[in-house]
Structures are given as structure tokens and as C-alpha cells.
Amino acid sequence: MKKLVIAFLGLFLLISCNEKADLKTAEIKTQTDSLKNKKFQMYEMSEMASLMEQMFAYNTQLKERILNNEDLGTYPVFFDRLHTVVLTDSSDRDAFFNDQAFKFIEAQQLIYEESTDTKKQFNEMVQQCLDCHSKKCGGPIPRIKKLLIP
């Protein structure tokens, strides 16, 4: 009797494990087939995202020039495109965005006009970025904070 029960349990386990293996194999095949049918799509930045990347790179260099007491040059007029570039989500261009854009450009221009304390002016410009990004699109905040001059 014991041998019959053990044989029955062994057969039951063998059958149930076999069904699970078949299900896993079918699932893997389905996933593989769906991946074959998907076409690779390259991420393309919006105009705003691209402009923000340019502004970050420029301000990283500007920070170094300030720290090294080098000539700052002149205000980069490409920053003015902030008012006209296409946003990732067009509904984000609202009164808040427009107000923040004007404040940012004003803060950026003051770095070149106020030569007495450029570090302070630079940090105020960075703070303006943080103020805007704290309300909209908070993703880049840790990266923006790296611009602050201690």
C-alpha cells in the first residue's frame, strides 16, 4: 500500500512539474515573439529638452570660469529661445512657465551685468532654475543642484 501511495505521489509530482515547464516555455516563446514584432524606436529630445541640455552645459562652463576668476564673456542669446521652443508637453507652457522663463533670463543676464558678486548672481540664477523645476518637471533637480557654487 505504501509503495502504491508513493508511486502515485511521484507520478502526480512528475505530471505537475511537466505542466509548469510547458507553461514557462510557452510564456518565454510569447515574450520572444512580441519582442521580434516590436521595432526599435530611438528617443528624440524635444526642443525644450535639447535647449535645457545646452543651458546646463553652458552654465557648467560658466561656473568654472567664475571659480577661476576668468572673463565671463557676454550673455548667450540662445537662452532667449526659452520663450519660443517647443516643449515636451505643450500644455506646460502656461502663465507660471512664462513668468519663470522671464525670471530665469533676467537672473542669467544679471550675472554679466553685476560684476561685483558673480558667485551670488550665479547661485541666484541656479535657484531660479530650482524654483521652476520644483513645480514642473522635477527630474533634473539633483543635477541642477550640482551647479550651485559653495
Précis, in short:
With 150 residues, the chain is an all-alpha fold.
Question: What does the secondary structure layout of this molecule look like, with pairings?
Answer:
Layout: H1 2-37, H2 47-67, H3 95-113, H4 118-135, H5 141-145
Your description of this structure?
By secondary structure, the chain is mainly alpha-helical. Helix content is 66%, strand content 0%. The radius of gyration is 29 Å and the shape is elongated. The model has no long low-confidence stretch (mean pLDDT 84).
How many beta-strand elements?
0
Strand content: under 5%
Rough shape? elongated
Oligomer: single chain
Radius of gyration: 29 Å
List keywords for this structure.
150 residues, mainly alpha, 5 helices, elongated
